Amino acid sequence: DTEVTQTPKHLVMGMTNKKSLKCEQHMGHRAMYWYKQKAKKPPELMFVYSYEKLSINESVPSRFSPECPNSSLLNLHLHALQPEDSALYLCASSQDRDRESTGELFFGEGSRLTVL
Amino acid sequence: RKEVEQDPGPFNVPEGATVAFNCTYSNSASQSFFWYRQDCRKEPKLLMSVYSSGNEDGRFTAQLNRASQYISLLIRDSKLSDSATYLCVVNIRGPNTGNQFYFGTGTSLTVIP
Pairing relation of β-strands A4-7 and A18-25? Predict the structure, then answer.
């Protein structure tokens, strides 16, 4: 069983809706990530939070808005999405100490998003 | 920009076969390397880390060549349960950005009875 929990598992929304994806981990990891994965494609990095600060934004459109309320939680706020944004959204975490890192990414099971 | 390149396959091999996957990465500052496995409609899971000296875990052997920026995975005595997509992953750690994990395109493996 994964130690990264994502909700909801499935989400269907219209292009005018506002919704949020949520992610939680209690492994004490200080780095959290959002990835987007389309069918038969690899996960694509969207955002990285390191010590609750946004450190990487891979040129993601502003209709996706990440938030890291504390070291255990990561949200992805969605607004005015397009049908092509339909995908599996994966949250992950990793240890991110200054001097060492196990390097392993732990993934949640993902939130499968459909935009109508 | 593609940080990591892999042959997407698919590879269809009989049970008991040996199969090798290759991966190249573009950023020489890449610091750590991994193979992940992803089953259909599941999240990726770590298969093994890859070390410069090469490492083995049962039927799986991983190799890293930093000079050529090349990573490989060898699976011996393939089992039906090895059928999955294998993803090469590279970690680039920036001084102010922390760990950034980039995935290769993935290689699909089907082991046939």
Answer: antiparallel
